[in-house]
């Protein structure tokens, strides 16, 4: 056996530490000799303390040992009891194994007991179930006699009986008995359907019944409310929900009422969606809806509970049905009248006092909180469809007007005149009236539609002016082939000019905003092009009559003093009398253009068929003739009303000064002044003028042309070209041999 120190090394370590501590303490206490006297007393005290500790340790160990002994005894007793229980369990196991065959008989007995309980439960309620069929017959008689309240009371009693029986069977878990009861009372479903059918027929005729026989409608509402309360109670409290519940008859009431409202008129066969057909349909809708909402507001509201909100429901139903119905109508290919009627009805009539804002409906009926009948996108789309239809109509109408206008040209009559004697036609009035009426009609709908129609009208007017110009061109070509057709060609051209002025003055009045009456630039340009073309055709007529006279310029006969310019003045005066049939700004324009044409033709004849003066005397004659012709023409145009400042004849006077200059060496200065005043003059023009003088040397010519090259001229703004339209042939260069001088 091992020693205690080997088994408990911690005890040995502790003892050493204790001894060391005791020696340290003793050496410290008894270090002084005087302290040794108390050593015996200390030894006795420590001896007593050790004895006390040892006795307490013995007592503790004794108590521990007694507890361990008691525990061991209890463990021994428990082991014996466990052994007895194991023996009992084994015996029970063998007993259970011996009786397993008897359990199947017990299962069959349990099933028989359950069936017996179910049959007993059914037997208890047989008297009540047997009375059900008699109740069914009575309820059916009441329904046939339209005694709906009494029929519903008995029906509720039968349903309550059925529900109570089914609830009891459900709590007992007797599903087989439940099926038996349900099969016996299956006639309840037919009675419910029969009652519901009568109720929905009544609701479907509610708008008529509240006026003729409100009692029947109120009866239907009372029955619906009874069923709604039963549904609510069962959903909140019952643990068992009977078959057919919840019925939801109040929701069905709303559905039937909505179907009644929408079914009669909004799902009608395809209607005539154009013109009068659509107008009648919309008028009928307006009248019917207002009338029926009056009935709902004044009569039906009093027949139903307040929480039904029947007026709001009907209003929303009409509104939604109209929304869908209008979209269906828009699927049709409506003409412009149909589209206008639809837009007017939606945006104006619907919210007007003639319909939803009717005094009899306000303030209870309010559709402002509902979505619009047509969304802003659909309204914009419909407006664009309407604009396209109107555009096609205007185009057709304008084309017909244009055809009629030019048919008038070939009549043997002058165009009509106004009270001042100016030529005119009905074309501006017809066109402007057509456009203005469409713009004003559009203003009855929305400002956006009016603006769309206005923009379209300007586009169509622009296109019309272009077609009118093309027609003028075509008519001018035909007239050139036979100037006798049309007979009053010039008069009709003058009427066109007056018409263009009338259109220009009237276009600004088309704008919807009175404060903004500017004519768009593109339309101004179209009017200018048409006016320019008519003016050009008139000047071509004048030119055709002047050309035979201009062909005689220049000539020796003319130089010697013929009446050639006098004849030209007679032609000009004749045309001026015709031009006086246009209004003053156009008359002045025609005079100015005619004067420029005469000057151009005069200069053209002088420069192209140049006559070289052979002597100073001939130059004098030429200058005299130029002075007389220019003076005569200037006096003519002044007499006709064209101011000198508006005339171009000064170019002839200036050209005369170049020819009359006596000293050729001064030509460069004179030419410089000439090209400064007429910057469209070219070198060829000046060379031709120098040739006409007949006395200009090559050196002087070279100086003049070099001076022109050093002083190029730019055309100032607003300058009316005179010489640029006169193309003078470039003189041929002389042929030179190599290392030789030119001839």
Features:
Tetracycline Repressor, domain 2, 72% helix, 4 domains, 743 residues, mainly alpha
* Derived structural class: mainly alpha
> Please, what is the average pLDDT?
85
Write the CATH homologous superfamily of the largest domain.
Exocyst complex component Sec6, C-terminal domain
Q: Count of helices?
A: 27
Shape: elongated
Total domain count: 4
CATH level 1 class label of the largest domain:
Mainly Alpha
Specify the helix fraction band: over 70%
Question: What composes the largest sheet?
Answer: none
| Rg over alpha carbons | 62 Å
β-sheet strand percentage: under 5%
List how many beta strands DSSP finds: 0
Low-confidence stretches: 733-743
CATH topology of the largest domain: Tetracycline Repressor, domain 2
Keywords: Cytoplasmic vesicle, Exocytosis
GO molecular function: SNARE binding
Subcellular location: Cytoplasmic vesicle, Secretory vesicle
Function: As part of the exocyst, may play a role in regulated exocytosis of insulin granules.
């Amino acid at each position: 056996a091992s020693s205690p120190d080997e088994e408990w090394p911690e005890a040995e370590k502790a003892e050493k530490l204790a001894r060391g501590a005791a020696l340290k303490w003793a050496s410290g206490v008894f270090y002084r000799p005087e302290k040794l006297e108390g050593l015996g007393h200390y030894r006795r005290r420590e001896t007593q303390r050790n004895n006390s500790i040892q006795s307490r340790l013995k007592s503790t160990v004794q108590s521990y040992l007694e507890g361990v002994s008691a525990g061991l005894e209890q463990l021994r007793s428990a082991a014996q009891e466990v052994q007895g229980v194991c023996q009992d369990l084994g015996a029970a196991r063998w007993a259970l194994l011996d009786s397993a065959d008897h359990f199947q008989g017990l299962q069959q007995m349990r099933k028989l007991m359950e069936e017996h309980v179910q049959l007993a439960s059914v037997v208890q309620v047989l008297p009540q179930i047997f009375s059900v069929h008699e109740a069914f017959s009575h309820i059916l008689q009441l329904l046939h006699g339209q005694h709906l309240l009494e029929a519903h009371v008995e029906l509720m009693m039968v349903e309550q009986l059925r529900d109570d029986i089914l609830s009891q069977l459900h709590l007992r878990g007797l599903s087989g008995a439940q099926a038996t009861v349900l099969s016996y009372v299956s006639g309840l479903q037919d009675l419910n359907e029969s009652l519901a059918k009568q109720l929905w027929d009544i609701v479907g005729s509610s708008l008529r019944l509240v006026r003729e026989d409100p009692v029947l409608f109120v009866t239907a509402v009372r029955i619906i409310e009874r069923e709604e309360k039963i549904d609510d109670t069962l959903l909140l409290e019952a643990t068992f929900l009977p078959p057919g519940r919840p019925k939801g008859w109040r929701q069905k009431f709303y559905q039937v009422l909505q179907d009644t409202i929408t079914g009669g008129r909004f799902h009608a066969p395809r209607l005539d969606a154009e013109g009068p057909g659509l107008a009648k349909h919309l008028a009928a809708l307006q009248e019917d809806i207002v009338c029926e909402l009056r009935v709902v507001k004044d009569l039906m509201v009093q027949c139903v509970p307040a929480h039904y909100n029947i007026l709001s429901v009907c209003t929303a139903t009409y509104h939604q049905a109209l929304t869908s119905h209008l979209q269906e109508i828009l699927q049709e290919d409506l003409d412009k009248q149909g589209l206008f009627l639809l837009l007017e009805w939606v945006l104006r009539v619907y919210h007007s006092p003639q319909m939803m804002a009717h005094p009899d409906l306000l303030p209870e009926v309010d559709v402002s909180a509902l979505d619009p009948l047509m969304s802003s996108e659909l309204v914009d789309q419909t407006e664009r469809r309407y604009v396209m239809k109107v555009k096609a109509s205007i185009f057709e109408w304008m084309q017909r007007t244009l055809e009629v206008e030019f048919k008038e040209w070939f009549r043997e009559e002058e165009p009509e005149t106004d009270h001042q004697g100016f030529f005119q036609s009905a074309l501006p009035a017809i066109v402007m009236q057509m456009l203005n009426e469409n713009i004003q009609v559009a203003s009855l709908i929305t400002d956006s539609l009016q603006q769309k129609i206005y923009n379209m009208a300007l586009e169509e007017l622009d296109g019309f002016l272009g077609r009118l110009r093309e027609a003028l061109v075509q008519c001018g070509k035909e007239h050139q082939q036979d100037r006798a057709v049309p007979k009053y060609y010039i008069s009709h051209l003058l009427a066109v000019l007056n018409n263009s002025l009338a259109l220009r003055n009237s276009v600004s009045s088309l704008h919807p905003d009175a404060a903004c009456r500017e004519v768009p630039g593109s339309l101004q340009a179209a009017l200018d092009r048409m006016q320019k073309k008519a003016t050009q055709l008139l000047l071509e007529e004048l030119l055709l009559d002047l050309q035979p006279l201009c062909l005689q310029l220049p000539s020796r006969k003319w130089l010697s003093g013929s009446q050639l310019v006098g004849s030209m003045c007679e032609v000009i005066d004749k045309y001026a009398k015709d031009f006086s049939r246009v209004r003053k700004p156009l008359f002045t324009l025609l005079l100015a253009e005619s004067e420029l044409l005469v000057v151009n033709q005069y200069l053209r004849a002088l420069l192209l068929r140049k006559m070289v003066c052979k002597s100073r005397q001939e130059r004098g004659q030429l200058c005299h003739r130029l002075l007389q012709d220019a003076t005569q023409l200037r006096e003519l145009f002044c007499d006709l009303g064209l101011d000198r400042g508006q005339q171009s004849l000064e170019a002839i006077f200036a050209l005369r000064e170049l020819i009359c200059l006596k000293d050729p060496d001064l030509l460069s200065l004179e030419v410089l002044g000439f090209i400064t005043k007429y910057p469209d003059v070219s070198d060829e023009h000046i060379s031709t003028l120098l040739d006409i003088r007949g006395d200009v040397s090559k050196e002087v010519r070279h100086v003049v042309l070099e001076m022109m090259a050093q002083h190029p001229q730019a055309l100032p703004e607003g300058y009316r070209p005179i010489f640029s339209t006169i193309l003078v042939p470039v003189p041929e260069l002389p042929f030179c041999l190599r290392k030789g001088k030119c001839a």
